[in-house]
Amino acid sequence: MKGPRTVKVAVRHRAGDTGRPRTRSAAWATRDFRLVRPAVGRDRVELECPVCAVAVLAEVRDHGRTRRVRTTWRAVSLFFLAVFAVSLAYAVHEGGRALPAGQSPPLLLPVSVVATCVTLVVAPAAWLIGRGHLGVTLLDAPGPRRGHRIVPVRG
């Protein structure tokens, strides 16, 4: 069997808001769990909230699938990083040229500027999604299960 068989997560319960209205932040109560990954596929587990004692449903994926999803998100971020570099280079190259009177800039110049701006946001977002992927998903349900999160526990 390859890969880690367990994953350490915490169930967070939104305990309320603290501070003034403009500088308000959420207060969370947490409880740590060590979940066993299935050998293949996915398992559903019930985790108990530390505050309200509600059973929170979570889905745990096997290690291979989790690793593939992380790798895919990182590849997407590297692809968008390459698109960012190419579109920025093209925009700088074409935008810095002096055009003869009456000639309009090439059509790809605004496209490359938009692509540069979009990929400047998408590449880091994809990297962070891949980095934060646990293979554990909160199965959302109405009512008392709202206000809960599952987060990784490092260390």
Labels describing this entry:
155 residues; three-stranded antiparallel β-sheet; elongated; alpha+beta; single chain
Describe this structure as you would to a colleague.
With 155 residues, the protein is α+β, with helices and mostly antiparallel strands. 37% of the residues lie in helices and 30% in strands. It contains 2 helices and 6 strands; from the N terminus they run ββββααββ. Strands 2-1-6 form a 3-stranded antiparallel β-sheet, with no helix packed on it. The chain has a 3-stranded antiparallel β-sheet with strand order 3-4-5. Strand 3 and strand 4 (55-61) form a beta hairpin. Helix 1 (63-95) packs antiparallel against helix 2 (108-132).
Largest sheet: 3 strands, antiparallel
Q: What class would the helix/strand composition place it in? A: alpha+beta
**Approximate strand percentage:** 25-35%
Helix content: 25-40%
Low-pLDDT residue intervals, each spanning 5 or more residues: none
How many DSSP H or I helices? Answer: 2
Mean pLDDT: 82
Instruction: Write the element-wise H/E pattern from the N-terminal end onward.
Output: EEEEHHEE
Oligomer: single chain
Rg (CA only): 23 Å
Shape: elongated
Number of strands: 6
Strands side by side in the biggest sheet: 2-1-6
Alpha-carbon distance between the two ends: 23 Å
Summary?
By secondary structure, this protein is α+β, with helices and mostly antiparallel strands. The protein has two helices and six strands; from the N terminus they run E-E-E-E-H-H-E-E.
Describe the secondary structure blueprint for this structure.
Blueprint: E1 6-18, E2 25-36, E3 42-48, E4 55-61, H1 63-95, H2 108-132, E5 136-138, E6 148-152
Helix pairs in contact: 1-2
